[in-house]
Design brief:
Strand order of the largest sheet: 8-9-10-7-11-12-13-14
Shape: globular
Number of strands: 14
Largest sheet: 8 strands, mixed
Structural class: alpha/beta
Strand content: 15-25%
Radius of gyration: 21 Å
Helix content: 25-40%
Length: about 325
């Protein structure tokens, strides 16, 4: 099986193309894109019918979340597995319909939450789940990068990230955080949030979100409370998670690939793990795992159900933005109720 179709030739599509070519040098690759890709060192088309005729063994579906159904419907029954970039769909309701279509066609599918394949995040998760520092009391997570510098080769205003109808916005574009927080700390039982547009960028999506989440505890332990901050506005690119535990704090820095802990009674941070500079990319590790899983029917990657959980969370976060707070004016003697 050596035919791969890639839907979309934006920054993530190009990354996947490079990954597939490195992993499978002899594979036949067809890129579907509305762009004119004539003269590129790979086959391309702007017609979905050509993808069907190509009969790909595997497909990688990138591009706008609004185009997922078109891509799925273009794939023949021959296709063995599909890797779908996040977000899975525009919202939970659409995701349920897309999931049903994938199941009806019998495709093996995984979601492109590649940070699950970060070696440093895996170390962080394993130590949390092994309880090295005791029960987790609270979680603080923050991720941000200025949208205008995110993809410097593109005008940020034309990207998917900047357009709501295509699946952009900080909640969907940075939904990696929602996926791995659930993966590490368990299902979310309630949320409260504020999100909106704070910057002067020319976009029609939210660029900032401040979210409080409760992760389900056991019968004998209270729930773990998490705070998640997401944004498109900060200029100091950041991705980090801190777990405050009974016997210390464990933190992960996704930019440097480091895991550190501050133990009870300690006087500083102890380095537990640092990713090697030459380590394989998370996209390469994800692709290799996906190929293996497509043969066996299961794997380490995020499932369609995981993607639906994220979409459900996003819908709940959006709903809580208008129902989760109270306005008051202390200068008028008005107190919150």
């Amino acid at each position: 099986m050596n035919r791969v179709a890639i839907f979309g030739y934006g920054s993530i599509g190009r990354r996947h193309l490079s990954t597939v070519r490195e992993s499978m040098p002899s594979a036949e690759i067809l890129v579907y894109s509305s762009q004119n890709l004539t003269g590129k060192p790979f086959d391309s088309t702007s017609l979905l019918a050509d993808v069907t005729d190509f009969k790909p063994d595997f497909a990688i579906i990138c591009g706008a979340a609004s185009t997922r159904f078109d891509a799925i419907e273009a794939l023949p029954a021959h296709t063995r597995g599909i890797l779908i970039e996040k977000p899975f769909a525009l919202d939970y309701q659409q995701g349920v319909a897309l999931s049903a279509e994938i199941e009806k066609r019998g495709y093996f599918a995984q979601l492109g939450y590649n940070l699950r394949f970060s070696p440093s995040l895996a170390v962080f998760r394993s130590r949390i789940q092994a309880g090295h520092l005791g029960d987790v009391l609270s979680v603080r997570a923050e991720t941000g990068q200025h949208l205008a510098s995110w993809r410097p080769e593109q005008d940020y205003r034309t990207t998917v990230s900047a357009q709501d109808a295509l699946g952009g916005g900080v909640l969907r574009e940075l939904s990696h955080e929602l996926d791995y927080l659930v993966w590490i700390f368990g299902d979310v039982t309630w949320v409260s949030s504020w999100h909106g547009r704070q910057s002067s960028m020319e976009i029609n999506v939210d660029d900032t979100a401040h979210i409080t989440l409760s992760f389900a505890g056991s019968d004998s332990t209270p729930p773990t409370i998490g705070q998640l901050n997401l944004d498109f506005v900060r200029h100091d690119s950041t991705r980090r998670v801190s777990a405050i535990c009974e016997s210390g704090t464990l933190r992960w820095d996704g930019i440097s690939g480091r895991v550190e802990q501050w133990q009870q009674g300690g006087s500083g941070w102890d380095l537990l793990y640092a990713e090697a500079p030459e380590a394989a990319s998370t996209y390469s590790l994800q692709w290799d795992s996906f190929l293996s899983a497509a043969q066996s029917g299961s794997g380490l990657g995020a499932t369609v159900n995981d993607g639906l959980k994220v979409l459900a969370l996003i819908d709940l976060i959006r709903a809580s933005n208008t129902t989760g707070g109270h306005r008051f004016s202390p200068d008028k003697g008005e107190l919150p109720v």
